[in-house]
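Support case: pantoate complex. Customer-provided input:
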Amino acid sequence: MQTISDILTLREKRREWQLKGQKIAFVPTMGNLHDGHLKLVKEAKRHAEIVVVSIFVNPLQFGPDEDLDAYPRTLEQDKQALVELGVDVLFTPSVSAIYPRGLEQQTFVEVPGISYMICGASRPGHFRGVATIVCKLFNMVQPNLAFFGEKDFQQLQVIRAMVTDLSMNVQVFGVPTEREHDGLAMSSRNNYLSDEERQIAPVLYQCLRTLADNIELGRRDFSALISEQKNVLSDAGFKPDYLEIRAVDSLLHPGHEETELVVLGAAFLGKTRLIDNIRVTLKS
Ligand code: PAF
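Agent response - structure generated as follows:
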């Protein structure tokens, strides 16, 4: 595996692959890789001759009171895991290489509507930061395919919308969430949990599971269902941010005829904000 930090070297490499007619799959990450990321890499390898992974903790997607400085950085350990999986290039640009004119005046990509709801309402500007960095990384790597975890379901749909709106020539794949044995969705932020919080954390998944099961069984009183499960979260020690039942593609409130739904949740456990989701297909 070659580790590349500068954009020109990456572009030269990209040209070599292109001349050989090799297909390029890309997995953008912020590092601190866990089995969820490694699943993305394995999936990428199944689809293309060349796999590029990026590690870049993107300041533009963190709010002023969020965990940018504390975000776990484990580059050597990450490299080891990527070498073992046979990744071709690890791209590790610096903040100044990515944002040479600084963050204040950076041109940005904004996907309206879908970026402002759910997580976007709780984290203003977050999806602007995500869309901007993913667009820039796509311009640098110029992949044929790109892989994202379904755990960040809204992020995935924002990126799909950006790719459609800006006619980007990249095929976007969503990869199902990797879970711990007790159902907790794998996330770098799980590292922040104390032992006691780690015991409680799977309750978020359990609440989403209960919501999904009840919807599948025919319950349509969504508001009542959601407030029941918010109480369960609070009783367990969470501070719920949101629980939502939405249409999969638009993430809007579903109409009666909608059969593809997603149940999404975010909740604080101490200072750690956990998110998760489960898809539900209704029999029509
Ligand atoms: O999901 C992430 O790790 C990040 O949001 C991403 C897509 C790498 C953009 O910084």
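Residues 126-141 form the longest helix (16 residues).

Case will auto-close in a few days if no follow-up is received.
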